[in-house]
Amino acid sequence: MDALLQELQLILECKVELVGSNQLKPNKNQTIINGSNHMNVLVHRTLSPAETGLIEKLVEHASILNPLNILSDPNGYKSNERALKYPLRLWRILYRDSKEEVSEILKSSFRKDNIIHMNNNESVVFVTNDEITPYELLGVLESEALTSVKIIISNSIARPCDLHKGYNDTIELSELGKHIKEKAQVIKYEEMVFPMFVSQLRRAEGLNLNIVSVGDSELEQTAMIFLENNLNITETANKLFIHRNTLIYRLNKLENITGYDIRKFNDAINYYLSYLADQIK
Q1: How deeply is 274 buried, as exposed, middle or buried, from its count of CB atoms within 10 A (0-12, 13-18, 19+)?
Q2: How many other C-beta atoms lie within 10 A of the C-beta of residue 164?
Q3: Per-residue DSSP letters for 70-88?
């Protein structure tokens, strides 16, 4: 794809770049050439009909061999020539800028793993061995590339035919993270199974979920940390830097509002489902 962009820049004598779907709307001095899924080409000048037709044919031809297809096309794995080891996880890395710096860091951090640069703000690594943790990678990217980063990690993928679904899962995880883990910079599939399940239920036609709104951000935060710490009073109190009696007071208050005593497993599950249903619109 980089070779195609360089060729187009020579032909058109202007800047040409790859952008994601719906990433931006061209102004009067720009032209968007729509490709397959994520493969959209932004030309920084107005094209004549003849030029547009020529570029569209070049982009269409490149799409056939586009390495992005292994993730964006359900059947892309069939024409894949990459040597991949399974099982693997997809690390979808989102960043604001500094693509060249990010690319160099990923190459040095994942010497044995495949990397695909989806566009100027997204790269995907096919991770087979965690030589570096996502939090370590996050720190390196932010300190050396000087860019804000989010890393979304898919479920374990054992077959080539599941690559497309795995990638789509990371997109859904990213969207859910805006509601459930707004400040989280690392989002893992296994931590979001329930939210994904509830999101799918919410999309089911005619389905009504019992939603109980707390209306108190402090109580909601307390409940989430309590659940994350496996219903452990002491660990939760330490994490919140409060006395255990204060925590018990908050849990009792939550029970009075919702009817759920989340110190009990079944009530904790029911409350969590209700909370997710309220958050995921």
Answers
A1: buried
A2: 19
A3: HHHSTTGGGG------SSB
Q: Is residue 33 a contact partner of residue 52, using CB atoms and an 8 Å limit?
A: yes
By the 10 Å C-beta count (0-12 exposed, 13-18 middle, 19+ buried), 250 is classed as: buried
Euclidean distance between CA atoms 34 and 257, whole angstroms: 51
- CA 73 centroid distance within chain: 17
Distances (CA, A) of 229 to 202, 223, 235, 239: 27, 10, 7, 9
Please give the biggest Cα pair distance in the chain. 74
How do residues 46-85 score in pLDDT, each as one tens digit? Answer: 888 888 888 887 776 655 446 677 888 888 787 776 778 8
pLDDT tens-place string over residues 149-206 = 999 999 999 999 999 999 999 999 999 888 888 789 999 999 898 888 888 877 776 5
pTM exceeds 0.70, yes or no: no
C-alpha 91: how far from chain center: 8
Amino acid making up residue 234: T
One-letter amino acid for residue 145 of the chain:
A
Instruction: Return the amino acid letter for 34.
Output: N
The confidence score (pLDDT) of residue 56 equals 80
> What are 57's two structure tokens?
């044919």
Alpha-carbon distance of 127 to 114, in angstroms, equals: 8
Residue appearing with tokens 């208050």: 253
